[in-house]
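ARCHIVE CARD
Drawer: 12
Card no.: 0347
Subject: one protein chain, sequence and derived structure
Cross-reference: see card 0346
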Amino acid sequence: MEELKQRLNANLEDLATKSKIRYHANPTKSVKTLSRTSIDFIPSNSDEMDGFIDLLINELLLRGLNPTGELDELRERLRPELELEYKLQQHLKKVAHCTKLEASLIALLHKIPYILHCENRVGLKILFMLLHEGYSNVLNGTLFAHIRGENNRIVAYAQEIERILNTYILGDEDGPAQWVLPMDKDKKPLE
């Protein structure tokens, strides 16, 4: 709605009180062409033509648009503004009739991507923290204490992490995944 308001050439409150012309989204042909306040009015004589042109000029001036030209030019210059105003009015009516529950649901629907993104980020952080804690325990000899040498313990830890991820998280025993823990040349996991 804010984007539509910014595209308007005039203040919506001024238009509501001063504008006399009407845009009909899906009118019958008679309403569309016979109503003197319709943008699609077809004048039948010169007096109606002059009155309708004056109306179009006043409406264009009200919206800060160029008021010069023939009838069809004036009409086609004003029509996009009227369509925009109509769309904005429809949105405002929907918002005005919205209950607190509906408004809350609309706001919640806009938050779902952020919630899902947050859940993924939190899951990754928990996994990283677990792996980092395990790595620290490998370095101080708490994990894989039966294996001598820090590099050998790190390799055993990496193989165990790969086995768990490939057979329980990313795959299963019958169809294991092929994920490998990235490590540098000194057998240190890459962070």
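Annotation on reverse: The two ends are 45 Å apart (CA to CA). Helices lie at 2-7, 12-18, 29-34, 46-62, 71-97, 100-139, 150-169.
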